[in-house]
Amino acid sequence: MNDEKYTTGSANIGTIHSDLGKNVMAHLKEIAPDLARYITEFFYGEICTRPGLDMKSREIATLASLITLGTAPLQFRAHIYAALNCGCTREEIMEVVLQMSVYAGVPAAMNAMFIVGEVFQDLDNQGEGDP
Fold it and tell me: What is the DSSP letter of 46?
């Protein structure tokens, strides 16, 4: 366990995911505290702080990976919000989905686009536009 990476990771979760991420991690911590700590320290405290990519680029890569997996709609939804928080535009997110239609297949892209549409509609209904 690394308290410095945990503190950094917790701060990054708040920056990237806002309250949504904090709530998800708090809930995960109740169920699987070791997994919550590992994700916080390793991904958000170590990987996300590497200098090779900015957070916008990391979120684009994350979206592409989640679309390709096709088995993580909750995480995909959360990372749409994260991508917007990290500077992606709606158009860029839609382009990622279109790009993945070639590599992940049309069904995966369709499923992803439906989720993107739901997130954008939720934001519009809340009058928030992009976060």
Answer: T
At CA 119, angle to CA 67 and CA 117, rounded to 5?
A: 70
pLDDT in tens, 1-21: 679 999 999 999 999 998 888
What does the block give as tokens for 59? 């979120």
Burial of 109 (0-12, 13-18, 19+ CB in 10 A): buried
Task: Find all residues with CB under 8 Å of 81, minimum gap 6, and list them.
Answer: 17, 18, 20, 119, 131
Which residue type occupies 92?
A: E
Residues in the chain: 131
CATH 3.30.420.40 fits 53-131, yes or no: no
For residue 18, give the nearest of 91, 95, 86 by alpha carbon.
86
Which amino acid, 117? Answer: G
- Tokens 């503190």 locate to 7
Could you tell me the pTM of the whole model?
0.90
